[in-house]
Amino acid sequence: MTTQLVSALDNGGETFDRYTLCCAQDGAYWVYGASENPTHPQGFGQFVGEYYLPDSDESPEVGLPIAFGDLPEGVQKFVRMIEAE
Question: Which residue ranges of the chain lie beneath pLDDT 70?
Fold first, then answer.
């Protein structure tokens, strides 16, 4: 089973869990929330739940797309940890 980052969203710091990470694994989509340094003891990096691709444009807006390379180093490390599971 290979987990892969499909998209990353950044809400610009509106909430502590600023980044929303959507990952795909065997046709299922898993969502994680992350702060700027999710592996720090005072950070946030957590599985949020399953995500189903919406059939319409009525899905809630949780941020703007951000490229993997533009994510903070800590979030990139967190994504690599998820992908290695």
Answer: 1, 52-60
